[in-house]
Inverse folding.
């Protein structure tokens, strides 16, 4: 895309390559990756600016000001100029910084991902998942979350990863495991229910690729390992780089646990059939999201035998990037 900026000397043509993008991050991997996913899809030179407000300033986030030492004119400030064309932020500690940036650089298009928990944020665009109640004229709500699994990255990942994954016979099933959440434990009964389904309902010709998360409890891994003993499988053991993208790219079908909106969003970006396993307890806000997801072809709860096929991906990252592009056209 080419953007034209009117100046006193004429028209300055700005291409994606020329665009500068800041990602304001407090270091939380999940928030930062969502910002990077949007930034990468938008295209441009990306600069990750870390914010780390100390006490007492952090106590006032997201409502209070940035610390005096982080003002743009201070050495080492995360807001030091030159200011970007676009700034994307997520996380409670970044709200004040994005607000300040918009005050000192009104021409910067500012974007915040997820509910900022304050009405004082002057961002040009706020994205929230559809299960969030935050709404407004500058709010975009989508069914899935932004991520870094672009079509190009999935295509590249298809030939990467451990050789063991490629030696598994097709059809391959990716099993994406979550686990305990802040308010719900992935109990032993749910673990045994998932393991029993793998034993009883998984077609004998299917190979399994398993990627656990940091939240996956030991009893769940034990149950899954036991269930997969009779069939070809490969389980990431936590060493080296997680071949998550490769598993999703190679998968002819995907089983994902229902406890993470990010995981649900990742798998929906593929074109493989999706089977959602609901543990006994998981965030209630996701139940409505799953009810909407299963209205799409080849997306269903894990209840019967798996089938392979192809479906249209659901990818909100591109929707958010398109919204930003529209905002840039008006600047």
């Amino acid at each position: 895309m080419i953007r034209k900026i009117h100046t006193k000397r004429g028209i300055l043509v700005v291409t994606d390559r020329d665009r500068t993008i800041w990602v304001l991050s407090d270091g939380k991997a999940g928030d930062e990756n969502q910002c990077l996913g949007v930034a990468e899809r938008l295209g441009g030179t990306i600069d990750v600016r870390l914010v780390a407000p100390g006490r007492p300033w952090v106590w006032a986030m997201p409502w209070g000001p940035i610390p005096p030492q982080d003002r743009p004119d201070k050495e080492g400030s995360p807001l030091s100029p030159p200011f970007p064309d676009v700034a994307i932020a997520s996380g409670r500690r970044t709200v004040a910084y994005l607000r300040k940036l918009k005050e000192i650089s009104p021409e910067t298009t500012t974007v915040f991902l997820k509910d900022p928990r304050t009405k004082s944020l002057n961002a040009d665009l706020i994205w929230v998942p559809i299960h969030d109640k935050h709404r407004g004229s500058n709010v975009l709500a989508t069914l899935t979350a932004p991520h870094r699994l672009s079509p190009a990255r999935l295509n590249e990942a298809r030939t990467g990863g451990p050789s063991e994954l490629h030696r598994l016979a097709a059809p391959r099933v990716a099993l994406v495991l979550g686990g305990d959440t802040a308010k719900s434990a992935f109990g032993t009964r749910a673990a045994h229910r998932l393991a029993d389904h793998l034993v009883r309902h998984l077609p004998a010709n299917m190979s399994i690729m398993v990627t656990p998360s940091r939240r996956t409890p030991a009893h769940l891994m034990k149950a899954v390992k036991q269930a997969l003993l009779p069939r070809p499988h490969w389980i990431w053991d936590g060493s080296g780089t997680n071949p998550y993208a490769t598993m999703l790219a190679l998968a002819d079908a995907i089983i994902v646990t229902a406890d993470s909106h990010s995981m649900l969003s990742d798998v929906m970006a593929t074109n493989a059939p999706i089977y959602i396993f609901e543990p006994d307890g998981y965030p209630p806000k996701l139940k409505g999201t799953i009810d909407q997801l299963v209205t799409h072809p080849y997306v269903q709860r894990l209840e019967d035998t798996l089938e392979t096929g192809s479906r249209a991906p659901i990818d909100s990252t591109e929707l958010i990037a398109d919204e930003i592009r529209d905002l840039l056209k008006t600047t």
